[in-house]
Amino acid sequence: MDFYSFLYTMAHGPLLWISFLTFILGSLLRIILYVNLSRKKDKITHQHFNLKYVLMSLFRWILPLNRTVAKNPIFTILGYIFHICLIVVPIWYVGHISLWEESRFGWTWASIPDEWADRMTLVFLAIALFFLLRRIFSRDIRKISTLSDYFLLVVTALPFMTGYFLSHATLDGVPFLGDYMELIHILSGEFMLILIPFTKLSHFVLFLFSRGATAIEFGRRGYTV
Amino acid sequence: MELFHDYIRDGKIRLREKFKEPTTVQDPCNVVRSGGLADKNRRLAEFLSEDFRPMKYQGNYNFCCGGGGGAMPMGGEMRKYRLRCGKIKAEQIRDTGAKIVFVPCHNCIDQLRDLSKEYDLGIRAIHFKEAITELMEIPQEMIPEED
Amino acid sequence: MAEDVNSREIYEFLKTRIGARFRTWLQICSHCGLCANTCHYYIANGNEPGMIPSYKVRHLLEILKRKGRVDRKYLETVYHTVYHECNMCRRCTLYCPFGIDIALMISLLRSMLFSQGIAPEGLVKAIENYKKFGNQMAVTEEDWVDTIEWCEEEMAEELLGLKIPIDKKGARIMYTVNAREPMFYPQDIMEVAKIFHVAGEDWTVPRKEGWDDTNLAMFCGDLKTARLIVENTFKRAEELEVEKIAITE
């Protein structure tokens, strides 16, 4: 077995397990650590806990019903679209679902049409490119950007880009890239999953807690933020 | 401020008249955003005015006047910075065209009076209590007899 | 003011005070920049990138990364940021998608600076006054009572039967003022007395410390004195068995 087929087997087997488990258990661990620490040090959140304000606040922000959207409509709407594509495409893309079906779990669910997945991927990549350019060229955003901000944006975009190349055989004529696109795609996806719990990408779940805590902070003063 | 609002709402204090000049009201961060009194603050200002003009962002999302967080009592070292950042508040007030600004905060009122001079706003910044004493009806039995 | 910086102390100070919220905020802030145009410092300074709220709290992360090993010069930069570029107004908090409370982090940085003896002179003076006299303007109890009595006399000429009850047990409301009022704005006290009188309110002012409701110690992170100030006021309220405390404006 040569190196690449070894890597291929790994990426389809153990690495897949490792990345999914890291993602799931890591995220769970982050939640447990958050709750644990907040019980000790953020007593104020627990003393004034009020689910009503938490839910109202999450509702306003998960849907674009907040003041920030009104203030910066373009950037925020792009942000919402970016996140919708990010979640929908990997989960409901037919190629992924068939892999789940073939796996030992045998799970399956309805998929989105292929052309949707295509378009959403392109939209996602366009927005990612816009975010990257914004980080580089906007005086403001450049000032507050760190190396990891650039790095994680690329890490997030890579699985989508390679996924598009893979399903359209775009680069099949290119040596190496054409031959190993599937491998690159899988590895990039796994890499992203592994990084989520340990980087700012953990906001996918910690956002709920952070928003919730602030919702309580202002909710005890009688209004929803 | 809350108390004054309730007095007027409940009729414990009656007003002889209301301000005729255009008015607006400052939302002090510690009273409104961190105090939860946005509505009462605005309503009290409306009680006292015939021509109340809200600022853009009136309420919880209003701008800070620049005098908060200890900036006023810091004195000279802070003066330059607070006058500069107060430009936003000055423009907000100018946009309303108000002549009287109610300010339910000692910090804000000193800052707003400074801003009025610095940016030539020509406003009168007053506390609610001053406004109320100016406008309220004094019951007959409390008025001393003139000699 | 202490001349040297105690790194271990800084690190311990921050570490014990950083809860789940702070820790999360420092990590998940995505540097999206939506807080920029919510800040009056940023806008008033010609959209200056250095004044973006998210940028201002970089110090907290930096100090934690360096485990408190920073020099005095660095702390002076922090001082400039947290005092001269922020009013802790929390406007950016409301506009942040994650609800990151920048003002709380600025406040933590101020407390840390205070622990190293770095604080604005104006605030330090007020705190010293408070510790000594029970109010930030160094008004003695005698002067305070004199002022109140003088206000009462002045106002009684305008309104029949007007009283400013001092230390009246069981009143409905205990009224507290900003210590600048007896010093510079006695008319504020008179106006309030007038309103209370006309409204037929059952009120009182306390004689002893607790009548000054300003809490400047809070702004420079002297949490011990800040707590003392609040406790004094509540102690008076309990002694006088009042229902409510009203603060000036």
Shape of chain C: elongated
Shape of chain B: globular
Helix content of chain C: 55-70%
Strand content of chain B: 5-15%
CATH class of chain B: Alpha Beta
> Numbering strands along the chain, what is their spatial order in the largest sheet of chain B?
2-1-3-4
Structure description:
In chain A, helix 1 crosses helix 11, helix 4 crosses helix 12 and helix 6 crosses helix 8. Helices cover 79% and strands 0% of the residues of chain A. Chain A has one domain: Fumarate Reductase Cytochrome B subunit. In chain A, 25% of the residues are buried. Chain A contains 12 helices and no strands. Chain A is an all-alpha fold and 225 residues long. The longest helix of chain A is centred in the N-terminal third of the chain and has 28 residues. The radius of gyration of chain A is 20 Å and the shape is globular. Chain B has 147 residues and is α/β, with parallel strands linked by helices. Chain B has one domain: Rossmann fold (3-Layer(aba) Sandwich), CATH 3.40.50. Chain B is built from 6 helices and 4 strands. In chain B, helix 5 links the parallel strand 3 and strand 4. In chain B, helix 1 packs across helix 2. Chain B is globular, with a radius of gyration of 16 Å. Chain C folds into 2 domains: 112 residues, Orthogonal Bundle (Fumarate Reductase Iron-sulfur Protein, Chain B, domain 2); 126 residues, no CATH class. Helices cover 55% and strands 4% of the residues of chain C. A 3-stranded parallel β-sheet of chain C has the order 2-1-3, covered by helices on one side. Chain C is elongated, with a radius of gyration of 22 Å. Chain C starts with 6 loop residues before the first helix and ends with a strand. Chains in contact: A-B, A-C, B-C. Chains A and B meet through loops of A and loops of B.
